[in-house]
Amino acid sequence: MTPLQILFILVAGVTLGAAFMVVTTRNMVHAALWLILGLFGIAVFFVLLDAGFLAVAQVIIYIGAISILMIFAIMLTRRIAQDVGSQISSGWGWAAGVSLLVFSGLAWMLSRWEGFHNQMPALDPGADPLIDLGKALVSPAGYVIPFEIASVLLVAALIGAIMVAWDKI
Amino acid sequence: MGDPVVLIANWLDGLLVGWGLADGWVTLIKTILGGVGISIFVLVIDIFLVWLERKFVARFQDRLGPNRLGPFGLIQPIADVIKLLIKENITPAGADKYIYNLAPIIALATVISLWAVIPLSPTMFGTDVNVGVLYIVAIGGISTLGILMAGWSSNNKYALLGAFRTVAQLVSYEIPMVISLLVPVILAKSMGINTIVSEQSIWFIFLAPVAALIFLISSHAELGRAPFDLAEAESEIVAGFHIEYTGMKFGMFYAGELLHALTVGALFSSFFLGGWQGPGAEAFPILGIVYFFIKAFAMYWVVAWLKYSLPRIRIDQMLNFNWKFLTPLSLVVLLLTATLDRLLINTSTWIYAGSMFFTNILLLIVLFQIMKRSGRRERKRVAEPKPIARPDGVRSVPTP
Fold first, then answer.
1. Residues 111-170 of chain B whose Cβ lies under 8 A from any Cβ of chain A
2. Angle, helix A28-48 to helix A3-24, in steps of 10 degrees
3. In whole numbers, what is the pLDDT of chain B averaged over residues?
4. Per-domain residue ranges for chain B?
5. DSSP string, B35-91
6. What ipTM was predicted for this assembly?
7. Which of B29, B224, B231, B272 has the fewest CB atoms nearer than 10 Å to its CB?
């Protein structure tokens, strides 16, 4: 086993464990923090795949923005942060069956995929994937229209936030 | 000669390969050793910083500072550390134990991990990622989390209020900081900090003085030091998020803050003051470290100067200053720099640098005019008689 594989198994174990704790822990803040650990594990996967930009974007967006927002929302409801009811709903058998089916279906599909047994190809050291990504986002032959539409959406959200906060109507 | 780190790395390479280890393992061991090495190096500087900070504040307040233990009081930080270590560790009743103990670790670890991407010299750096600037922003996001965890888990109203204030401040000042960091990225045509430093044949502070100013102010706010120390405003919320921490747990927050101040200095010198650049730095990388730390400590001194000479601002002033002043200004600077960079793409270096510099100066002049006008308006508004609340709820101005 190469060190990369050992790291992968360790990180995968931590990520899966954190994901399990998110749904089983009774304290909401703890669940949010376990979720952050899980998302961080995903960022480490991106690093192991030499996708530095995606890893950093994952940390900025999911840990730096979304998780902080979630923790804020939970903290504003401190009295009900503790859940006391049963954690398992009555239809858990059906849910487990469907999950198992989907998981085994995906695993079967992936095992038949030709790239499944390939080793990770080495990156071309001369090329900078970040520059390629940036060019693809703004070139007319690439993804400029989806990129601009997403920007318009964000501007609309910003204007909406200002309108909500505006008190001089 | 002149490059001990590469020397040690090559020697380790030979040794480990001689033991019959595979390439992957050698890389892993070297990476771990490098990480531990940088962390220890930075933490040793941190001990020294305790002494430096106390000497600085003493000078600013016309005192002598620590001067009893050892020459110039140099052994004082050791005494400080011993005092912190033997203090009782108190966990408040109702505290969330695991989060409570994890928070100081995250607070210090995030600051140390910033040093992974800061190049100390042309050949000595933790790692050269092509998204170095974004990495710094991402680590800033995690440090916010550490403070929020400390404030929440202490089971104390003041701690929670302090944490909320800190998060509001960090999240808002992150925006002008990121936008102002994009200016050196445009000038160097790369997000990797190594490239940004090596592109600075002319220091970027001359090409983008306004961006440098915005970065200094917003990263000072990220530090949470005066005038932006609302998070630990003693007169209002006692000590903020670290109110319940004692002993070495408090010491870790303190060490993290001091080290963060030096890190801001190091980042500023890497982005705007040429980092390790200086005469002879290319040939003798060890000289690069000397230049780098001279610049970093000079900027650290500026940060301390700001902290000890400015009074604390109010929370509405803090947010207004960010959203109504720094953020629009940083957007204007970014647009101007990007446009000029495209227009002057084929001109000589001096024309390029000159027009960048003069555009920035022009912007500063316009800015001061706007600030003067809004300052006058604000003074007028404050001087006006205040409306008095009447029982019938009608706002009225008192007649003289």
1. 129-131, 134-135, 137-142, 144-145, 148-149, 152, 160, 164, 167
2. 160
3. 83
4. 1-86, 89-379
5. HHHHHHHHHHHHHHHHHHHHHHHHHHTT---S-SSSGGGTTHHHHHHHHHHHS----
6. 0.79
7. B29
